[in-house]
UniProtKB/TrEMBL annotation:
CDD domains: HAD_MDP-1_like. It comes from Sesamum alatum. InterPro entries: HAD-like_sf, HAD_sf, HAD_SF_ppase_IIIC, MDP-1_euk, MDP_1_eu_arc. This is Magnesium-dependent phosphatase 1. NCBIfam families: HAD-SF-IIIC. Transmembrane segments: none annotated. Pfam families: Acid_PPase. One of its GO terms (molecular function) is acid phosphatase activity. SUPFAM superfamilies: HAD-like.
Length: 187
C-alpha cells in the first residue's frame, strides 16, 4: 500500500471519531522503523514501516501535532535518519535520549514543551514497560508488535476516544457530587 493510500485511509479512520488527540507521540526503534539506531551508522539509508509515513502525514494534514519519545542511546544517528527520511520538521517535540525511566522523563519534557495535557495525548511504542509507565501518567498508550500500522492507529484512536469519554463522565459525576454536597451543606 503506497503512502498516499495509507494517508487517505488514515484520514478516513480519523473521520470516524468525534474526539481526536491533540498530540500523537511515537517511539522510533521498532515503532516507526524496523531496527535499533545503535545497530546502524549515519551512512546507512533508513526505511520506515510501510504505514508509518502515511499515518504521520495524515496526522499533520488533520492538524494534529506529532512528537517523538525515544530511549535511543544514539540520538545523533536517530536525528540523521529523521533528516534523511525528510521527517524531522514534522515533529513539534523530539525527545531522543537514553533513560532508565521508561519514558516518563520524555513525556514530562514533551508536556512542558507543548503544553498538551497527558490525557490529550496518544502514544505508540513496542515495549510493554514504556506503555505501562506512560499509561499511568494518563496518556492513552498502544503497544505495537511489528511497527505502527493502520490497525494499531485505529485501535489507538478508539482507545483514546473511550478514555476521553470516561474522563468526561467522571468530571460530570464530580460536578454533580460537588453541587449536591454544597446544596446539602446549605440546608
Amino acid at each position: 500500500m503506497g503512502d498516499d493510500r495509507v494517508k487517505n485511509e488514515a484520514m478516513e479512520i480519523m473521520g470516524m471519531f468525534q474526539v481526536l488527540p491533540r498530540l500523537v507521540v511515537f517511539d522510533l526503534d521498532y515503532t516507526l522503523w524496523p531496527f535499533y539506531c545503535e545497530c546502524l551508522s549515519k551512512r546507512d539509508m533508513p526505511s520506515l514501516y510501510p504505514h508509518a509515513k502515511g499515518i504521520l502525514y495524515a496526522l499533520k494534514d488533520k492538524g494534529i501535532d506529532i512528537a517523538i519519545a525515544s530511549r535511543s542511546p544514539t540520538s545523533d544517528i536517530a536525528n540523521t535518519f529523521l533528516e534523511k527520511l525528510g521527517l524531522k520538521s514534522l515533529f513539534v517535540a523530539q525527545e531522543i535520549f537514553s533513560s532508565w525511566t521508561h519514558k516518563t522523563d520524555h513525556f514530562q519534557k514533551i508536556k512542558q514543551r507543548t503544553g498538551v495535557p497527558y490525557t490529550e495525548m496518544l502514544f505508540f511504542d513496542d515495549e510493554d514497560r514504556n506503555i505501562n509507565a506512560v499509561s499511568k501518567m494518563g496518556v492513552t498508550s498502544i503497544l505495537v508488535d511489528d511497527g505502527v500500522n493502520l490497525e494499531a492507529f485505529r485501535q489507538g484512536l478508539s482507545k483514546f476516544s473511550q478514555n476521553r469519554s470516561s474522563l468526561e463522565r467522571n468530571k460530570q459525576r464530580w460536578r454533580n457530587f460537588s453541587q449536591k454536597s454544597s446544596s446539602s451543606q446549605e440546608l
